[in-house]
Automatic annotation (TrEMBL):
Organism: Archangium minus
Name of the protein described by the UniProt record: TetR/AcrR family transcriptional regulator
Stretches assigned to coiled coil: none
Record's keyword terms, sorted: DNA-binding, Transcription, Transcription regulation
Domain of life of the organism encoding this protein: Bacteria
């Protein structure tokens, strides 16, 4: 079972943007360029200590609770001292995100072919988002290319390398799978957060409101919605089931990719 109950009250209201700080400074932090060239007395802290404390805070209370002051308090140092190591919260978030990607396995198992590999990758990312739900509140349209993000991209591309796709198609395939996983994980985390904030599970919420909904939902006016909605509600005990949506969607994405890859292979014969 995934530990997604630790996110704090700030989750869902804060969106941060990767690459919104100074990209040069972020790259220096991500690749350790600044630390490698540093001389003088041994510093009291390291960037890694700061980043790990920030991740722990975001895991426990959500991204909205993250601030340089909160991290400094946890490390028992003055807030201004953190800026000696990390320029601002924006660059800190870039490094946090990359460190989280570093938790992904890098299995060399190629059994089962590209489909089994992509499915394994999808499940690994699904688990990562549930360990660190704050990652879902970072817009990544301008990613800062850290070592772990690039290693993740390399690993995922290898799953579809040499099967007849162009380089652009390979990129599109891994992006498609990643997009499904992130969207499904976001809905799953939001469902868990709703339960925590309201004190009611989805099953309890629907059970409490079902009688009123039955009164206002006219099956003659909405026959298909009434029939299908009732069947889904009976199956899930709620309007949706995030884990089922992830599993069902993943297999349909892979089914579609299989048809596409087979067609590309035939075209090249």
């Amino acid at each position: 079972m995934y530990n997604i109950s630790a996110c704090g009250k700030n989750d869902g209201v804060t969106t941060e943007y990767s690459g919104s700080g100074d990209p040069q400074r972020s790259i220096e932090l991500l690749w350790g360029i600044q630390e490698r060239g540093k001389r003088g007395p041994k510093p009291r802290l390291t960037v890694e200590q700061i980043v790990q404390e920030a991740i722990s805070l975001a895991d426990a209370e959500g991204l909205g609770a993250l601030s340089m002051r909160r991290v400094a308090d946890a490390l028992k140092v003055a807030p201004m001292s953190l800026y000696t190591y990390v320029p601002s919260k924006a660059e800190l978030i870039d490094v946090m995100l990359d460190r989280a990607y570093g938790e992904l396995p890098r299995s060399e198992d190629v059994s089962g072919g590209w489909r089994a590999q992509l499915e394994r990758i999808a499940r690994e990312n699904w688990a990562l988002y549930h360990r660190h739900p704050w990652m879902l509140h970072i817009a990544k349209s301008r990613p800062v290319m850290g070592p772990n993000l690039i290693a993740r991209y390399e690993h995922e591309l290898r799953a579809v390398d040499g099967i007849g796709l162009t380089d652009v198609e390979m990129d599109s395939v891994v992006s498609l799978v990643a997009g499904h996983v992130e969207g499904a994980a976001r809905r799953s985390v939001e469902a868990a957060q709703a339960e925590r904030h309201t004190g009611m599970s989805d099953e309890q919420w629907w059970a409490a409101h079902a009688p009123l909904l039955e009164k206002v939902l006219d099956p003659q006016r909405y026959p298909t919605a009434a029939r299908v909605g009732s069947a889904a509600g009976a199956e899930y005990g709620a309007a949706t089931h995030p884990a089922h949506a992830f599993e069902f969607g993943l297999q349909r994405v892979l089914d579609g990719l299989e048809v596409f890859i087979q067609a590309r292979t035939r075209d090249k014969r």
